[in-house]
Amino acid sequence: MDASAAPGGRGDGLSVPTLAAPLAQFVVRTFDMGGNLGAKDRELAYASPLLAVLGTHGDQAHDWLLAGQALQRVLLMACRHGLQASYLNQPIQVASLRPRLQHLAGDGVPQILLRLGHPVGAVPAAPRRDVAAVIEETTVQGKEPRV
């Protein structure tokens, strides 16, 4: 689990109660939800107006960073044009499926598989924390405060 899902987190991302964290980690690592999840992902893929694969030349930390930067640009541009995105993670995360996706996508290593399209209805704004909760003002002796 990433830091946002860690016990005692600030509630950003996925939050897991402290007592439930070990159980959640065990379930994620132990149980294969492949059959049902795969069927659902297949339905979503077939119903998608557009599927996009973001790939890199390699599969190292630097490549992952580049994929994240590309994803940022794609998501911002999609938002600007009124599109919504969702992820189809299974073909990327399941070791036996990733090479098949790579074969379909062509050159490179697939890092992210996205569904893109116009939302059916109004999309509520994502919850945000107050600015004061995320920005800390500091002062350095003899200098103006900076954010």
In short:
The protein has 147 residues and is of the alpha+beta class. The chain has six helices and three strands, in the order ααβαβααβα.
Explain the overall architecture:
- This protein has 147 residues and is of the alpha+beta class.
- It has two domains: 1-31, no CATH class; 34-121, NADH Oxidase, CATH 3.40.109.10.
- 41% of the residues lie in helices and 14% in strands.
- It contains six helices and three strands, in the order ααβαβααβα.
- A three-stranded antiparallel beta sheet has the order 1-3-2, sandwiched between helices.
- The longest helix is centred in the middle third of the chain and has 20 residues, at 61-80.
- It is extended.
- Residues 1-8 have low confidence and may be disordered.
Q: How are the secondary structure elements laid out?
A:
Elements: H1 21-30, H2 34-47, E1 50-56, H3 61-80, E2 84-87, H4 90-93, H5 98-105, E3 109-117, H6 131-134
Antiparallel strand pairs: 1-3, 2-3
Features:
147 residues, alpha+beta, NADH Oxidase, three-stranded antiparallel sheet, 3 strands, 41% helix, disordered N terminus
CATH homolog superfamily of the largest domain: NADH Oxidase
Structural class: alpha+beta
Radius of gyration: 19 Å
Strand order of the largest sheet: 1-3-2
CATH-defined topology of the largest domain: NADH Oxidase
Number of helices: 6
Which term fits the overall shape? extended
| CATH architecture call of the largest domain | 3-Layer(aba) Sandwich
Task: List low-confidence stretches.
Answer: 1-8
What is the rounded distance between the termini?
31 Å
